[in-house]
Structure formats: structure tokens, C-alpha cells
Design brief:
Oligomer: single chain
Distance between the termini: 65 Å
Largest sheet: 6 strands, mixed
Strand content: 15-25%
Strand order of the largest sheet: 10-11-9-12-13-14
Helix content: 10-25%
Order of helices and strands: EEEEEEEEEHEEHEHHEHEHHEEHHHEE
């Protein structure tokens, strides 16, 4: 079964906690601190696997977690780092944050290896906090928390030319004739349920990749029928090739069909609708007379060639006009930028913790500035503010994390009170 979308949950590894311990050796009654650092947590990494062409595996396994870092130990022993988890996906997979739908990365082009979530940093052992005035620190740094995300994976077919058209207009027959692809061909609606890719090899030319996209019906941009599946796969194509049944063998109007598809493209993505388009008037072998054929083709040309969309007559069955069409497509591609369509990053997971690190507000009733957040709470849990070293660490933490800057933006002045959970202090520069 072809699968082009999957939702999964990923989580990086938590950093191991730093250790609190002191040397205990014979004849060394007052040994110094020797607590080791915690190990770093494992990262969540995506890699392209050329052997994959669907997202089917992600329908069975939806949860992916990296290993946690081990806690530090006595005798300066550092905890073991957590194992990374490597998630392999097909080329062309776009990874999005599930709730917002924003792109995190596009596993296409040169992007073959992407670290999506970094593991939490291991905490420092108490040996790092010893000073001349604090020789026996009884606190260590906890490991950095893990990061987690719900992701939507979307596989978008990578092809230079995308074939579009209503069912039974001859797209699969055309693809089978011009490429090494072997699509299923039958005379019933929605024959092509999965994208079929093939390589067009031309003499004295580079050649290109062409894709037969799932059949389209009106309302696709709203998800009707195959809807989004159809439109998702043509987002990368550089040229859109309309295949129409010029002979109207099933009673369809080719001009109306082209307008219907253009309407869906426009509604889904204006940039997509603006890409170069070519029309292939198919089934030239099905007309009863030359006059009837000329009349049908003229109606299509008069409608679209003034709009800059060239019309070529072909027969996918007999091969008539196919060679000329292929060389035209190849010439158009050589004039275009060779870079394939890559979706830009819109969502940055590394900013998650920074964005949620703290909040700074002003309590009008108590006339105090209030600082809260998970990182603040954790920092207070492992910092001894009664010691000179601990208070210096606290001040640096407030400055390095931008908390003092936020307080100043709110208009704090010397002597004003700042509250952090159960702790209150007067602000001085």
C-alpha cells in the first residue's frame, strides 16, 4: 500500500544529572568534591534512505524516543551518553510540526542527514562548583530536559514534469510509452491511485523525470476525492503537463476540464498555478474524420494559446506527436533553474525551550515583578543562594537567559521587588 502521510511522536533523551559526592579515602578525612557530570541525552536524527519509497512503516510504529543520558557518579565518573535514534525516510519527505503544519525540514536535495531534536545536555557534578570560599558544594546541576514533538510526515513526489488530468484521459498510457514506468492501465475511474514515476531518456538530451499523479476531480483543493493527495504530489514539479481527451470519448469537454484543474491549482497554491503549463491534446487516433479532429483541436488552441499555454496533439496509443512534445518539455526544463523545489524551514525546534524558558510579568496588587518558568524553578532547586558561589551563579543565570533584559523592558527600577516562586529580592544594577 502506498502511504504518503504519517503522524508520529518523537522525543530526544534527557541529560543525566550531575552527581554530588566527596572523596572518601583512608588517611584523607576531608577529601574534596568528586561528583561526575551527567551524560548527554541522545538526539533525534532523520536520514534519507534510497531504498524507501513510501511512509508505510510509520503507520505501524508511531513513537520514536532517543536514549537518556546516565547520571554522573562518584570519583569524577561521567555518565554514559544516551543513544541517538536515527529515523530513515524516503527522499522527498517533508517533516512538519503537526499542530501548526509549519515545515521543520525537507529531506530533499543535499539534505540527507538532519538533527531534528538535540539531546539534553548532561548536568555538571559538584566538583565544578568548588571555590576557595566554598570548598564543599552540596549541589550539582541537573540534566537538561528532553524535547518532544508531534510530527506530520508528508512524502511529496520529486519530478520535473507532473501529468495532470481527469481519469481516463490517457496519462498512464502516455507514461508507459515514454518512460520505463509500468503503471496499471484500465478503463475505469481513479485508475491511478498512487503516483507513478518514470525517467524519460532522449537522444542528445539530458532527459527528465515525469510523474503520473493520482486522478483529479473538482473540489480537490478542499480535499474532495483524492484531493490533497493529488495536489501534494505536484508541488515539486517544474512544469505541469495537462493531458486531455480531445476526442471526448467519455463525453467530457477538454476545455472545461483544463479550467477545472487550473481552478483547483489556484485554490490550493497560487505559486503552483503560476508554473509553466503545457497541454497535450490526446486521443488523436479516436476521431471519426480529419475535419472533426481539426475542429476539436482548434477550440483548445484558440482558448489557451493566447494565454501562453502551448497545445500539442498526440496519441499515447500510437505514439503520434509524442516525440515532439518530449523535446519541447526538455527544452523548457533546460531554460529553468536546475534547483528542485525545496520547502523552506518555518518551524525551529531548538527555540522551543527558549520560548518557554520563562515569563516576566508585573503584579499590580503586590507591586512586584514576577519571574516564572520551568527552567527558573529547576535552577532554584539546585542553587544554594546562601553561598557566594551560588548567588553569583544565580546572577549570571538571570543575565545570560535575558531575564534582566525583560525586567528592564517592563520598566523595573532600583529597589523594586522581584519574586521567583518562594524567593523575593530587591533589584539593583
Amino acid at each position: 500500500m502506498f502511504a504518503d502521510r504519517a503522524q508520529i511522536y518523537v522525543k530526544s533523551g534527557k541529560g543525566g544529572d550531575g552527581h554530588v559526592s566527596f572523596r572518601r579515602e583512608k588517611y584523607v578525612p576531608t577529601g574534596g568534591p568528586d561528583g561526575g557530570d551527567g551524560g548527554n541525552g541522545g538526539s533525534v536524527i532523520f536520514e534519507v534512505d534510497e531504498g524507501l519509497n513510501t511512509l508505510t512503516n510509520f503507520r505501524h510504529i508511531r513513537k520514536y524516543c532517543a536514549g537518556n543520558g546516565e547520571n554522573g557518579n562518584k570519583k569524577n565518573c561521567k555518565g554514559r551518553n544516551g543513544d541517538d535514534i536515527i529515523i530513515r525516510v524516503p527522499q522527498g519527505t517533508v517533516i512538519k510540526e503537526a499542530e501548526s503544519g509549519k515545515v521543520i525540514t525537507d529531506m530533499s536535495g543535499e539534505n540527507r542527514h538532519f538533527v531534528l531534536l538535540k539531546g539534553g545536555r548532561g548536568g555538571k557534578g559538584n566538583q565544578h562548583y568548588a571555590t576557595s570560599t566554598m570548598q564543599a558544594p552540596k549541589y550539582a546541576q541537573p540534566g537538561q530536559e528532553a524535547m518532544e514533538l508531534d510530527l506530520m510526515l508528508e512524502l511529496k513526489v520529486i519530478a520535473d514534469v507532473g501529468l495532470v488530468g481527469f481519469p481516463n484521459v490517457g496519462k498512464s498510457t502516455f507514461l508507459a510509452r515514454v518512460t520505463n514506468a509500468k503503471p496499471k492501465i484500465a478503463n475505469y475511474h481513479f485508475t491511478t491511485l498512487n503516483p507513478n514515476l518514470g525517467v524519460v531518456d532522449l537522444e542528445d538530451a539530458k532527459g527528465f523525470v515525469i510523474a503520473d499523479i493520482p486522478g483529479l476531480i473538482e473540489g480537490a483543493s478542499q480535499g474532495v476525492g483524492l484531493g490533497y493527495e493529488f495536489l501534494r504530489h505536484i508541488e515539486r514539479t517544474k512544469i505541469i503537463l495537462h493531458i486531455v481527451d480531445a476526442a471526448s470519448t467519455e463525453g467530457r469537454n477538454p476545455v472545461e476540464d483544463i479550467y477545472a484543474i487550473q481552478k483547483e491549482l489556484q485554490a490550493y497554491n497560487e505559486e503552483l498555478a503560476a508554473r509553466p503549463q503545457v497541454i497535450a491534446a490526446n486521443k488523436m487516433d479516436m476521431f471519426a474524420s480529419p475535419a472533426e479532429r481539426e475542429d476539436a483541436v482548434s477550440r483548445i488552441r484558440e482558448e489557451f494559446e493566447p494565454k501562453g499555454i502551448p497545445v500539442y496533439t498526440i496519441s499515447a496509443v500510437s505514439g503520434q506527436g509524442v516525440r515532439e512534445l518530449l523535446y519541447t518539455l526538455n527544452n523548457l526544463l533546460t531554460q529553468m533553474d536546475e534547483k528542485s523545489v525545496i520547502f523552506a524551514q518555518e518551524y525551529f525546534p531548538e527555540r522551543i525551550e527558549k520560548e518557554a524558558a520563562f515569563t516576566v510579568t508585573y503584579d499590580e496588587e503586590k507591586q512586584e515583578y514576577v519571574v516564572e518558568g520551568p527552567r527558573i524553578e529547576r535552577m532554584l532547586g539546585y542553587t544554594n543562594l546562601e553561598s557566594e558561589k551560588g548567588f553569583t551563579f544565580f546572577q549570571n543565570f538571570m543575565k545570560e537567559n535575558g531575564i534582566l533584559e525583560e525586567l528592564e523592558k517592563l520598566g523595573i527600577e532600583e529597589g523594586d521587588t522581584v519574586r521567583l516562586y518562594g524567593l523575593s529580592f530587591d533589584y539593583y544594577k
